[in-house]
Amino acid sequence: MKYGEELIRELETEIERYENQMSRRWDRINNGETDQEDCFVSMRVEERGRDLAKSKIELIKNGGCEWFVEYATLDGVLVNAKWCECKSYTGYGHTSKLRIEMPDGTVKWTQATTEKGLARIGIKRVLCKRPAWFNQAVLPLTQGYTYTDVTKNAQAMPTPADLNERINYEFEMAGRAYRIPKALMLGDVSDVEKITKNFLTFAIDPICEKFGEEATRKRYGARQFANGNYIDVNTNCIQHIDIFEQATNSDKLLSSGLYCIDELRVKLGDTALGEDWSRAHYITKNYAEASQFDHLGKGAE
């Protein structure tokens, strides 16, 4: 096993080898011989290998010690500080807070990360030189002693209920941005017909109207639009239509002359017949001008 200067020279050779491999790979990418995306894994392995070798050299030069960020009072007294995962105030997800045990025995909590924010509660960051294994210390337990980690919060790990609550929150926020009803986002089928109509009215129709206006502007222009030519994005057939449920309504639309047979077939999701009689409009005798009825008198003329 190598130590000291001999180990440093070996690590420097390893760093040079990694950098040469990375340089040759970039030359092949710039020359079009290979694609950068195809080399992603190899590049990451070489970068991590190079950085690891540099870290080892720094540790050897520092005598096996490394600089760690710790917390102390403004007078320079080190305190026991630890970042903890806590439930956020909104009730969704978790947030991180710094738990600080002050020299007088009191405990302070903060989310401050800047020096100014820490100074408000009488704390500052300090750099301390510790052995590289400082954060991985070993606690010897003699016979008759047991160790219990009292700082570990059992509630910090998310439960299935927490995950479900988080998912519902994300879906609700996404639906709110696109004006999609919460019940549709979460798959609630109760009163779905009314909810779907609201979804079409407030979410789909405004977007389709904008699409139609923009397509008309680019396709036809102002002159053609003035002549009555435009694009209309129709959303009437988005919902599922049961033709047997709509039989009475279809009869009224046909008998009043509002739609012809082909137009109704298209509205109901069927194909148009394309015949002369199917393109004609029909009006029953129930619909006529008031002047044609004798019992209404001449005042109806």
Describe this structure in words.
The protein is 44% helix and 13% strand. By secondary structure, the chain is α+β, with helices and mostly antiparallel strands. The strands form two sheets. It has a three-stranded antiparallel β-sheet, with no helix packed on it. It has a two-stranded antiparallel sheet with strand order 1-5. A hairpin with a 5-residue loop joins strand 3 and strand 4.
The gyration radius over C-alpha positions equals 38 Å
Poorly predicted sequence stretches spanning 5 or more consecutive residues: none
Share of helical residues: 40-55%
Number of strands: 5
Q: N-to-C terminal Cα separation, in Å?
A: 116 Å
One letter per element, helices H and strands E, the order comes to: HHEEEEHEHHHHHHH
Q: How do the strands and helices of this protein lay out in sequence?
A:
Layout: H1 4-30, H2 40-61, E1 65-73, E2 80-87, E3 94-101, E4 107-110, H3 115-119, E5 123-131, H4 160-177, H5 182-186, H6 192-219, H7 221-226, H8 247-255, H9 261-267, H10 276-279
Antiparallel strand pairs: 1-5, 2-3, 3-4
Give the structure's gist in a few sentences.
It contains 10 helices and 5 strands; from the N terminus they run ααββββαβααααααα.
Question: Could you list some keywords that capture this structure?
Answer:
two-stranded antiparallel ribbon; alpha+beta; 301 residues; single chain; 13% strand
